[in-house]
Amino acid sequence: MSKFIDRVVLHVRAGRGGHGCASVHREKFKPLGGPDGGNGGNGGDVILEVDANVHTLLDFHFHPNAKAGNGKPGEGSNREGKNGADLVLKVPDGTVVVDGDGKVVVDLVGIGNRFIIARGGRGGLGNASLASKARKAPGFALLGEEGEELDLVLELKSVADVGLVGFPSAGKSSLVSVLSAAKPKIADYPFTTLVPNLGVVLSGDTTFTVADVPGLIPGASDGRGLGLDFLRHLERCAVLAHVVDCATLEPGRDPVSDVDALEAELAAYKPALSGDESLGDLADRPRVVILNKTDVPDAAELAEMVSAEFTERGWPVFEISAVSRAGLRPLTFALADMVRQYREDHPKAAPKRTVIRPIATDETGFDVVADPHEPGGFVVRGTRPERWIRQTDFNNDEAVGYLADRLARLGVEAELVKQGAEPGCPVTIGEVTFEWEPQISAGVDMQPTGRGTDLRLENNERVGAAERKLASQARRGLLDEDGERKK
After folding, report:
1. Range name among 36-40, 63-67, 147-151, 220-224 with the lowest pLDDT average
2. How is this protein organized at the quaternary level (predicted)?
3. Which of 211, 350, 398, 411 could potentially form a cystine with 160 if both were Cys, beta carbons 3.0 to 4.6 Å apart?
């Protein structure tokens, strides 16, 4: 049995960028062919796209985790890694995306509308791209960045022209079944309809959709019954139709009191998405009163008695019977006229030609503030410094020296001195904390050393090629007591 799901929690994760490659060109008779490490591929994005063939969020209910493809690492011979595959998630028209803080991220309305909800990480640069006058053959490469990871809430708000509002068992599902080809569940007990039902109605040359919202009761706007979960499906309806049960036998109920009770709930409900208020509040939408079940003699008499009171309010009144189909033709034409009038008053905007303009982002700024958790420490915040930290391989001394040069050129060293930082004080950038050593000559011309090493770092435990060669000769007994090669 199919299920209608209109609210899900979705965990999305964009792809990770591939690492850059640190490689040196090897060729016969060319021992120093230069760096040829390629860049890593970018991680894939997670994209939401409105699809006309999707009508529920059921797929995300069973598969709440979505992950895009990771970028491939770079390779030697200047071969770049392949970009990760984008993940396109199909959502129904009218889906609202809310982040973990309850803030609306995007309102997806319109077939084909797309939105990148999580961007993939950048691929790391290979050593061929890092070569410069100072570093002609870098012995390191940059790491790929992690993709964005988010927890989202997807809410579906039905996009319908007419919304049927009424108490449970008022005959809303029956009305949808006779106005359209929809086949909702119909029974003679309250809350038969647990999910909204949509029907397509053709009247003359006008086609419009009707939404059957589950029955509302007093207190629905405060969460009683099923109303709070499904009142949001009325937010996009252009016309609200009160379906009144004139044959009810419940004590204390009559058509006027039923409509007044539901009007109070509609007035108390506030749309969570401010963009939906372009149609006006629910209390301001055009109204139609449908007095149902007039095939019952007592109900027909009651409908005649209360029609005048609704007419005085300026609302069109229609006496119908969904069972015998009496009065449906005038109702259908009236609803079509109201929908047509709304569409004329709110014409759809012409599709705009897509113009791609690069967005200028200021990534040069950074802030140095006192660390609230470490006495005498500092925290460096900024897009560039934090990204550089994520891209650095701290097991490679040359990569650490390159990071120090970048931070110095950006002005971080000078700002720390200006803030009164003392040698050895903890400095935190992103998720990394290190002891600041101002005596390191960062940002100036460096003295070339072995690949992966940097003489400016005191604790350099990396064994160079010359040391490894001597150790190998000593193990084979090729060196004398003075460390010289035996003759």
Report:
1. 220-224
2. Monomer.
3. 211
| pLDDT recorded at residue 113 | 86
Q: Record the tokens describing residue 184, joined without a space.
A: 């909702």
7-13 and 149-156 strand pairing: antiparallel
Query: Helix, strand or coil for residue 434?
Result: strand
> What residue segments make up the domains of the chain, in order of their start?
7-156, 162-345, 366-438
The structural architecture, per CATH, of the domain 162-345 is 3-Layer(aba) Sandwich (3.40)
Closest CA to 52 of 124, 113, 132: 113
- Contact indicator for 62, 8 with CB cutoff of 8 Å: no
Annotated binding-site members for GTP? 166-173, 191-195, 212-215, 292-295, 321-323
**What pTM did the predictor assign?**
0.68
Distance of alpha carbon 283 from the chain centroid:
31
Determine the Cα–Cα distance for residues 153 and 134; give it in Å rounded to an integer. 50
Q: Which CATH superfamily is domain 366-438 in?
A: GTP-binding protein OBG, C-terminal domain (3.30.300.350)
pLDDT confidence of residue 150: 92
Q: Which helix or strand (DSSP H or E) is residue 259 part of?
A: helix 255-268
- Note whether 287 and 315 are within 8 A (CB): yes
Annotated binding site: 166-173, 191-195, 212-215, 292-295, 321-323
Dump pLDDT digits (tens) for 433-451: 888 877 555 555 555 566 6
Instruction: Answer yes or no: same fold for 7-156 and 366-438.
Output: no
Q: What is the mean pLDDT of residues 318-333?
A: 88
Q: How many whole angstroms separate alpha carbon 171 and alpha carbon 189?
A: 11
The stretches of 11-162 forming alpha helices (DSSP H) are 58-62, 127-130
Q: The domain 7-156 is classified under which CATH number: 2.60.40.1120, 2.60.40.10, 2.70.210.12, 3.40.50.300?
A: 2.70.210.12
Count of positions (residues) in the chain: 487
CB atoms closer than 10 angstroms to residue 376: 12
Task: Return d(Cα 334, Cα 331) in angstroms, integer.
Answer: 5
> Alpha-carbon distance 306 to 196, whole Å?
29
